[in-house]
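Pipeline run #58 for the internal structure catalog. This entry was flagged by the ingest filter as a single-chain record with no existing model, so it goes straight to prediction. Upstream metadata was stripped on purpose; only the residue string is passed forward. Reviewer on rotation: M.T. Logging verbosity set to normal.
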Amino acid sequence: MEQSLAGKTILLLEDEPMIAHALQEELGEAGAIVFHARTCLDAMIFLCRAQVNCAVLDFHIGEEDCSAVAATCDDNGVPFIISTGADPEETDGLHATALIQKPFSAFTLLRLLAQYTN
C-alpha cells in the first residue's frame, strides 16, 4: 500500500477492539503513527501531550460520546473525522472535518486521512 500517511500521527478513538485492530493495521501499513485510545480520557491526554495530524473519533464510546474530544481537536486546529453507526444528525455541532458512516472501508478512511493531513 502507498505510504500516503508516512510519519503522520493519527489519534484513533475506538472502543471496539476488532475495529481498532483492523484500522491500526491499515493505517500503519500506510505509514501512519497510530495512537489508539479506548476512552475519551485517554484521547484527551494524548491530545495534550502529542502533536496530532488528524483524529478519527468513534462517536459513541461506551456510555459517552466524543464531544469533549472533538471540541479539544477543534480548539487545537486538529482535523478530525467522526465515525458513527448512529444517526449522523447526532454529530451536528461538532465541526467535524468529515463524517464517515459505519461500516466503512479502510480505503475510504485512508483517502480522507490523506486529504486532511497534507
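catalog note: The first strand starts at residue 9 and ends at 13.
catalog note: Helices lie at 17-29, 40-49, 67-75, 106-117.
status: ready for reviewer M.T.
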